[in-house]
Amino acid sequence: MATKKRSAARIIYHAVCAAVLLAGMFMLLHEPIQSWFVSRGTSSLGLHKVAAAGSEKGDNSHIRKQEPVFNFEEVAELDFETILMANLNKDDIHVIGGISIPSIDMNLPIGEGVAPYTLALTAGTMKPDQVMGEGNYALAGHHMNRKDLLFSPLLRVKTGDAAYLTDMKYIYEYKIEEQKTIEATAVEVIEDQGPERLLTLITCDDSGKARVLTRGRFVGKTPIQEATKEMKDAFQLEMSNL
């Protein structure tokens, strides 16, 4: 009887040790795995999705599958489940363009709206019917611990840096003019400001409680076939494919 009890105790002990080990491994690998899924998903939602809109041979991935969501106040912290499901439901993300800031190595697809799956893999438009190069073009993006994903690089941007948007017809250039911390409730910053043509980028600060606003002013637009080398390099475009 004593031998059976010792055997049962050993089994329980080893089971507990294995559970603790697995939990520790999950905690250790959780963030790298999460980051990998974000990077993989973002890369797969490249500008070819936008280019397909003008091609009869496109895969129809540019077609809106559902109505976009613009309720930014309900945006929640990015978690692993949302990232995983976004990768499994990429067709629900309506890619309409791209944003690049070469000085901080930021190059992201732009998705329509701020639905959870959209913000998990893209920069999301914060207002309906925004037009690049007009009004106050506002985008939101998540801030992650890995500093090269989504809007995390924005915390390294400097005044005077060039920022580019593209809809695969034109490339729109902006010059960064300011960056400041604002309250999470300061939603008025995304509204149009008279005739000014602005780019407003919103992400969380390191604490997650406040928001970081990065703002640029419109410089001009260039037909994509006439884009400079710097512009092409910013979006990693091969002109032979356009």
From TrEMBL:
Gene3D superfamilies: Sortase
UniProt-recorded Gene Ontology molecular function terms: cysteine-type peptidase activity
Transmembrane region(s): 12-30
Listed InterPro entries: Sortase, Sortase_A, Sortase_dom-sf
Keyword tags: Hydrolase, Membrane, Protease, Thiol protease, Transmembrane, Transmembrane helix
GO biological process: proteolysis
Active site: 142, 204
Domain of life, per lineage: Bacteria
SUPFAM superfamilies (alphabetical): Sortase (SSF63817)
Protein name, entry field: Sortase
